[in-house]
Amino acid sequence: MSDGASTKHLDSLWFQGVSLGAVALVATTALAFAYRTAGPAIALAEARDVAASLAQVLPENFHDNDLLADTTRVDGVDGRPLTVHRARRQGEVKAVIFQMVGKGYAGPIRLVMGVDLEGRLTGVRITGHTETPGLGDKIEVARHPWVHSFAGKSLEDPVPARWAVKKDGGEFDQFAGATITPRAVVQAVKAGLDVYAAQRAAMLADAPAANGSPSE
């Protein structure tokens, strides 16, 4: 290759490299701008989804505060921090809501549960799982009414020994071909009630906040 041809070849490679770098810079800048622009909207949508999940475990018109804003932190399972959302009516706490995680057949099962001042469940909803479609996914309220069976239950009703699926001598139904999944949910809900019993004072101890603002 002649010196002239070599120079043209190097110039071409240099130009291509600069061009690719410029394209990458423009693309990165555009993505960053899009994220900054869409970020608040995405965060708002996620907050609305969380708020909707929290409200689903409460009776209708049970609270008038902002569940996302009115929170506290307590020691959960194995001492891990647990975020607790408080449901208030006219400034008085009526129930608390928090998340628990069970070990399902295919992975973690995440749920939210509401507990009133007497320690009774106001509701339970599954918020995330990877269980088998058509079997384990019956824990979803949209697939099966099974999760409604927790409403009104407490550590005394049924007694602790009956906090299990029927196959294990307990109170709660299992699904045909899928026992591990409902067992995991029952155990997670029972563990949540145990946390509430142990941390009730800390969950409820704060000044009234009629406007839903969190305590300091």
Automatic annotation (TrEMBL):
Q: What is this protein called?
A: Ion-translocating oxidoreductase complex subunit G
Q: Which PANTHER family match?
A: ION-TRANSLOCATING OXIDOREDUCTASE COMPLEX SUBUNIT G
InterPro entries in UniProt: FMN-bd, Ion_transpt_RnfG/RsxG
Subunit structure as annotated in this protein's UniProt entry: The complex is composed of six subunits: RnfA, RnfB, RnfC, RnfD, RnfE and RnfG.
GO process terms (BP): electron transport chain
Described by its record, this protein's role is as follows: Part of a membrane-bound complex that couples electron transfer with translocation of ions across the membrane.
Assigned EC number: 7.-.-.-
Similarity comment text for this entry: Belongs to the RnfG family.
SMART domains reported in the protein's UniProt record: FMN_bind (SM00900)
Residue ranges of the FMN-binding domain? 104-196
Q: Which domain of life is it from?
A: Bacteria
Q: List the transmembrane segments.
A: 12-35
Q: In the record, which positions carry FMN phosphoryl threonine? A: T179
Q: What are its GO cellular component terms?
A: plasma membrane
